[in-house]
Amino acid sequence: MEENMCLVGMSCMDNNSVDAYCSGTILEVTKGLVLTHASILYNSLSNESHFFKDLHNSSHVIGSRYFPDAKAIVTFQPKKVNETTKSVSNNGRFHTEILNCSNSQTTPSLAHYPADILGVFRVDEFAKTLQHLMPNSEGWKFWDTSLEDHDIDDAKVNLLLPCFVLLKLQEWCFEKETNTVTRPRGMLQSGTPVYAVGTPFGGLSPQVFLNSVSQGIICNTSGSLILTDARCIPGMEGGALFTHDHHEKRKLIGIIVSSLCWKNNEWIGLAIVCALPAIVHTLKLSLVSPHDRVQSKQDVVPHLAQAMNCVVLVKVGAMWGSGVIIDSSEGILLTCSHVTKEASSRRGDECFVIGHALYGDEARLRPSVMAGVVSKVTRVNNIPVMIQTTCAVHGGASGGALVSSTGKLLGIVICNAKDTQTGASYPHVNMSVPLVTVWPTIQQYLKTKDASVLEHLNIQSNAVTSLWALKTTEPFTEYRSKL
User: Fold this and answer.
1) Which of the pair, 242 or 153, is modelled with greater confidence?
2) Residue 180 burial (10 A CB sphere; 0-12, 13-18, 19+)
3) Per-residue pLDDT tens over the stretch 15-42
4) What are the tens digits of pLDDT across the range 78-108?
5) Which of 38, 66, 250, 342 could cross-link 160 (Cys pair, CB 3.0–4.6 Å)?
């Protein structure tokens, strides 16, 4: 993956300092064409610039006439690296290596290429989806709202969000052994494992961070917009999202647009990606044949398909949440009280949360899927009463399904953690009610249709109540929880 990735630095002033950095992706190796995100131009433009008006009204790539003094430098990690270790032991169980710490040892070398700006363009299909799903009126932000410096221009950020910059490398020598990235065939499926590649923190320390890789899944898609829980850090905008086919051949499926999402000042642990076919279509480059284009139809990986079909949106007045169908013939579903086959879970097990997080019925999306692991299973008298996971859980997912890696229902999602003093939420710290705890009562109701048996679902144990209230029952110094 790394040989097709790079770091792009941009200077739009008549000086040698770099004003901004973004990650970059080589779209066409033989021609030296590099794609990066237009947020790299933030410091060079004003809202009043004719650039935005022309960009909005044009269906073509806008040339570099708006940036006559712009200088771009593209940084790569050379494929060949110096040998830095030597083996001293290999007994079958452990392989020991010693770092070569000679005085001649240097930090990893980087290759730098100047580049020309061929143009800037806006992906209209992607822009319309962004406006529909993440409008300003609903409190969406795409920068760190916790920063003390709030001189961020929301309007300019939003204008640049669906835009990209195309560069051409100067003095580029094509290496035949460099692998050409293959493009995706067929539809993108929720739950598909993906890899995000980019350079966290931009130009802070490329020797350390250049072309870092993180793993996650496709959480949801809408048109050309992809949501993923693969970890993305500021500076990775313009980086690539890859997946693998059944032959383990990597496929470039999209370009990272925003590593940070906030809704009503609540951090959303997802990254926004623009699907590659929409970008290529806008560029009018013949890189993708018609049958290679990603279909807009939504689907899900097979092992999660049944669980996905059992998760529904539950709406009460203006509020909504999620629910899980437990008896389709009777139309009975299970959800959380504040929204109105049995499987065990162990710490470290892979798991998924499926629910209608963030979006109500007006978005017309299927449930989103979030991947993680079981952090802990809390028990009272050896009975599991709470499952904690690292899946990203947001508003609307309550009542949704917590399922195993094979799609078996483990529990019902209740909530994530929130700091009551600062209002900060922690999507990756969340709790679910284990299905094994409530299933006997549900089975009895399904068999007898006697609603009175459901009273057993009400918590009767003070110990369980204290745990869910995050109160200690041990003889420690009393700590007043902020969560």
Assistant:
1) 242
2) exposed
3) 667 889 999 999 888 889 999 999 998 8
4) 765 444 444 445 555 555 555 555 555 556 6
5) 38
